[in-house]
Amino acid sequence: MEDSNVLLECDLFKVVRHRRVGPDGIEHTRPVIRHPGAVVILPLLDDGRIALIRNHRFAVDERLVELPAGTLNSGEDPRDAAHRELAEETGFRARSMELLITFYTSPGILDERMWLFVARGLTPGPTKLESGEDIQPLVATWDEALAMARDGRIRDVKTLAGLLYYDAFRSRT
Length: 173
What we know:
The strands form three sheets. The chain has a four-stranded mixed beta sheet with strand order 7-4-9-8, sandwiched between helices. Strands 1-2-3 form a three-stranded antiparallel beta sheet, with no helix packed on it. It has helices at 78-90, 142-150, 157-169; strands at 3-9, 14-21, 27-34, 38-43, 50-57, 62-66, 69-71, 93-104, 113-123, 135-140. The protein has three helices and ten strands. The protein folds into two domains: 3-34, no CATH class; 38-169, Alpha-Beta Complex (Nucleoside Triphosphate Pyrophosphohydrolase).
């Protein structure tokens, strides 16, 4: 049986000390970050280009090339969150939002689950950035996006996973 106690609680996550008896019969403790989950969106324009963003990330103090993404609100359906985040960060509204895959970002310390969606039938509109967000749009061809992944200009794991998953398993079907 697992047991845990809260070490730190913030708006977006909490850190717990997790206790569990392992297969060796010994109790082990690990710090675990509990996260509500997030969505990442691969927005495909009708002409085949992709809507990326340049997002200043406070934790690394860098502007990263990313797919639009965001944290789920309490009780929020991931598809609704994907529509919301796409509009907030890029201004685009999507006619369709298809779930491609879910994955964990760093399961050694974090339980964050991400839902990867592909958005199609995009129409432009105004962005609605949250206070403190520093995001700029970046529209690229598919080949340009893959080149950025290949040469290291894209270093964000959810963006790499989204682009490479779609390229390997969906773009040819």
